[in-house]
Design goal:
There is one protein chain. With 187 residues, the protein is mostly beta strands. The longest helix is centred in the first third of the chain and has 9 residues. It has a single domain, classed as Jelly Rolls, CATH 2.60.120.10. 8% of the residues lie in helices and 39% in strands. The protein has a six-stranded antiparallel β-sheet, with no helix packed on it. Strands 10-9-12 form a three-stranded antiparallel β-sheet, with no helix packed on it. The protein has a two-stranded antiparallel sheet with strand order 1-2. Bound molecules: D-sorbitol-6-phosphate and zinc ion. D-sorbitol-6-phosphate binds next to strand 5 and strand 12.
């Protein structure tokens, strides 16, 4: 693919869309198998309407080498077995950095390099930096939709299997009115 020509991309009025827009995707509860600690609660949520947990809308910039795609992720509020709704999480097979810019709501960026886990609070106006080699997952810890803009190298790729094998180091659980971070193995 030849490089694109320069062009402007605008946020929609609700910060949930991009104009012009490229591919979009929706991930439902059934797409998140094996990710929540409480499998029975996950099965119940799938049986109970299989809700949309998050959506991703992308700009038209393609995921190809040397391009710099962007996307807005919207995670809806909720928890499954006490674990806040979250993205699947992934590693970049080609270790390259990425940034997230908080747009709406209140979330967390969970980072795991296979040994160390880090948690960054993300609210509107905050940039979270994801260094090369750190798997990343986003979590909505509020009671409204959490939205962020991601900007990432087009050749970074997405490895979802890595998270299934290695976990993410920590889980974010609802505890009274706050977020409790617990070790990954804790049921
Ligand atoms: C891409 C970037 C985000 C995520 C999106 C959904 O590198 O990190 O656009 O793809 O937040 O998360 P996931 O884990 O389902 O790809
Ligand atoms: Zn990524």
């Amino acid at each position: 693919t030849p490089p694109l020509q320069p062009f402007a991309i605008r946020f929609g009025a609700d910060n949930a869309t991009l104009e012009p827009q490229g591919p979009t995707l929706q991930r439902r509860m059934s797409d998140l198998e094996g990710l929540f600690a409480d499998r029975r609660a996950w099965e119940q949520a799938v049986a109970d309407g299989d809700p949309v947990v998050y959506t991703v809308v992308s700009s038209p910039v393609p995921e190809t080498a040397r391009e710099l795609p962007q996307s807005i992720t919207t995670i809806f509020p909720g928890d499954t077995g006490g674990e806040f709704w979250m993205t699947k999480g992934h590693q970049h097979p080609d270790p390259q950095g990425e940034i997230y810019l908080g747009l709406e709501g209140h979330g967390g960026l969970l980072l795991f390099d296979g040994e160390r886990a880090e948690w960054l609070d993300i609210s509107p106006g905050v940039i979270g930096y994801i260094p090369p080699g750190w798997a990343h997952r986003s979590v909505n810890v509020g009671d409204e939709p959490y939205r962020f803009l991601a900007v990432y190298p087009g050749s970074a790729g997405h490895d979802y299997g890595w998270v299934l094998t290695h976990g993410m180091g920590l889980r974010a659980r609802r505890s009274a009115d706050r977020v409790e971070l617990v070790p990954f193995g804790t049921p």
